[in-house]
Amino acid sequence: MTESLDLEDVGLPPFRSGRRTSKLAIVGAGAVGSTMAYAALLRGAARSVALYDINAAKVEAEALDLGHGIQFMPMAQVVGSDDIAVCADADVVMFTAGAKQKPGQSRLDLAEATIGLVRTVLPALVEVAPHAVYVMVTNPVDVVTYAALQISGLPPSQLFGSGTVLDSSRLRYLISQHTGVAVQNVHAYIAGEHGDTELPLWGSASIGSVPLLEWTGTGGRGPLTEEVRGRIAHEVVDSAYRIIEGKGATNYAVALAGSRIIEAVLKDEQRVLPVSSLLDDFYGISDVCLSVPAIVGAHGVGERLSVPLSDAELAGLRASADAVRSVARQFGF
């Protein structure tokens, strides 16, 4: 660990009281963290981006590389350091550091190493950025989020997980591919665990204003039959494993999904996103972090929406809760 970081020494002027701009801190400068910084900068999500990683050479190089491209992006400042002070006074902290998922390895297999890292790093983060909204991105995100809440003592509104925001994007993409309708006009959510027990909420999904289950098809493309829906649901779960097997990590789509969460917080959008948060009597489900559509804004995650659920969907959500809860209990949470 280096000595306390002076922002002026690394090219960032000190913030002036009353004139602060939005600050994003990203913990972990690996494939996900560095790509998330890139996506957030391209979208103009924050005026100040701080990267933190224990590998000083890596994090400083990533920040320098990003900084060299600022001319071609909305104006921002970028700094990278192995000193946690770089995250001081952040408005949003994205926690992407963790054990790397190997081909064939489930997200839940990653839990032990990642929870150990969270236990080491998170308290120091909260000390330097006590008012930030914390978004856990590291897998297995639901278990990690639950553990992080216990470790940090932060309120459930202030710390939540990226959940199934990416999975829902994958679902919408596949529905779009089948129907030929623009993905922006597909409205559907994945709920539950960000992992093998997640489930699509078909009953509340729609294409334009047409309920998805009533979609009859256009342009020679058929309806979304039970067989088609089953194939799509399987592909959503399997796609991450395929990408990891082929290129070693998922980074582009998760970074874009993360930047969307960042914008919802920094711009106080009150946007509905399926983030992973601590549930309290959501259809009878409590004391577990799962993804359900929720309102996200400047104060973090707010109201969880009571989406209409079929009996099968509710049973699936409860089974997903049991799976995540059992893993959390294995690690003492």
TrEMBL record:
<feature type="binding site">
    <location>
        <begin position="137"/>
        <end position="139"/>
    </location>
    <ligand>
        <name>NAD(+)</name>
    </ligand>
</feature>
<dbReference type="Pfam" id="PF00056">
    <property type="entry name" value="Ldh_1_N"/>
</dbReference>
<keyword id="KW-0560">Oxidoreductase</keyword>
<feature type="binding site">
    <location>
        <position position="120"/>
    </location>
    <ligand>
        <name>NAD(+)</name>
    </ligand>
</feature>
<dbReference type="Pfam" id="PF02866">
    <property type="entry name" value="Ldh_1_C"/>
</dbReference>
<feature type="binding site">
    <location>
        <position position="187"/>
    </location>
    <ligand>
        <name>beta-D-fructose 1,6-bisphosphate</name>
    </ligand>
</feature>
<feature type="binding site">
    <location>
        <begin position="98"/>
        <end position="99"/>
    </location>
    <ligand>
        <name>NAD(+)</name>
    </ligand>
</feature>
<feature type="binding site">
    <location>
        <position position="172"/>
    </location>
    <ligand>
        <name>beta-D-fructose 1,6-bisphosphate</name>
    </ligand>
</feature>
<feature type="binding site">
    <location>
        <position position="32"/>
    </location>
    <ligand>
        <name>NAD(+)</name>
    </ligand>
</feature>
<dbReference type="GO" id="GO:0004459">
    <property type="term" value="F:L-lactate dehydrogenase (NAD+) activity"/>
</dbReference>
<keyword id="KW-0963">Cytoplasm</keyword>
<feature type="binding site">
    <location>
        <begin position="167"/>
        <end position="170"/>
    </location>
    <ligand>
        <name>substrate</name>
    </ligand>
</feature>
<comment type="similarity">
    <text>Belongs to the LDH/MDH superfamily. LDH family.</text>
</comment>
<feature type="domain" description="Lactate/malate dehydrogenase N-terminal">
    <location>
        <begin position="23"/>
        <end position="161"/>
    </location>
</feature>
<protein>
    <recommendedName>
        <fullName>L-lactate dehydrogenase</fullName>
        <ecNumber>1.1.1.27</ecNumber>
    </recommendedName>
</protein>
<feature type="binding site">
    <location>
        <begin position="139"/>
        <end position="142"/>
    </location>
    <ligand>
        <name>substrate</name>
    </ligand>
</feature>
<dbReference type="GO" id="GO:0006089">
    <property type="term" value="P:lactate metabolic process"/>
</dbReference>
<comment type="function">
    <text>Catalyzes the conversion of lactate to pyruvate.</text>
</comment>
<feature type="binding site">
    <location>
        <begin position="28"/>
        <end position="33"/>
    </location>
    <ligand>
        <name>NAD(+)</name>
    </ligand>
</feature>
<keyword id="KW-0520">NAD</keyword>
<keyword id="KW-0597">Phosphoprotein</keyword>
<feature type="binding site">
    <location>
        <position position="162"/>
    </location>
    <ligand>
        <name>NAD(+)</name>
    </ligand>
</feature>
<keyword id="KW-0021">Allosteric enzyme</keyword>
<dbReference type="InterPro" id="IPR015955">
    <property type="entry name" value="Lactate_DH/Glyco_Ohase_4_C"/>
</dbReference>
<feature type="binding site">
    <location>
        <position position="250"/>
    </location>
    <ligand>
        <name>substrate</name>
    </ligand>
</feature>
<dbReference type="InterPro" id="IPR011304">
    <property type="entry name" value="L-lactate_DH"/>
</dbReference>
<dbReference type="InterPro" id="IPR001236">
    <property type="entry name" value="Lactate/malate_DH_N"/>
</dbReference>
<feature type="binding site">
    <location>
        <position position="101"/>
    </location>
    <ligand>
        <name>substrate</name>
    </ligand>
</feature>
<feature type="domain" description="Lactate/malate dehydrogenase C-terminal">
    <location>
        <begin position="164"/>
        <end position="325"/>
    </location>
</feature>
<feature type="binding site">
    <location>
        <position position="107"/>
    </location>
    <ligand>
        <name>substrate</name>
    </ligand>
</feature>
<feature type="modified residue" description="Phosphotyrosine">
    <location>
        <position position="241"/>
    </location>
</feature>
<dbReference type="GO" id="GO:0006096">
    <property type="term" value="P:glycolytic process"/>
</dbReference>
<comment type="subunit">
    <text>Homotetramer.</text>
</comment>
<feature type="active site" description="Proton acceptor">
    <location>
        <position position="194"/>
    </location>
</feature>
<feature type="binding site">
    <location>
        <position position="53"/>
    </location>
    <ligand>
        <name>NAD(+)</name>
    </ligand>
</feature>
<dbReference type="InterPro" id="IPR018177">
    <property type="entry name" value="L-lactate_DH_AS"/>
</dbReference>
<dbReference type="GO" id="GO:0005737">
    <property type="term" value="C:cytoplasm"/>
</dbReference>
<dbReference type="InterPro" id="IPR036291">
    <property type="entry name" value="NAD(P)-bd_dom_sf"/>
</dbReference>
<dbReference type="InterPro" id="IPR001557">
    <property type="entry name" value="L-lactate/malate_DH"/>
</dbReference>
<dbReference type="InterPro" id="IPR022383">
    <property type="entry name" value="Lactate/malate_DH_C"/>
</dbReference>
<comment type="pathway">
    <text>Fermentation; pyruvate fermentation to lactate; (S)-lactate from pyruvate: step 1/1.</text>
</comment>
<feature type="binding site">
    <location>
        <position position="58"/>
    </location>
    <ligand>
        <name>NAD(+)</name>
    </ligand>
</feature>
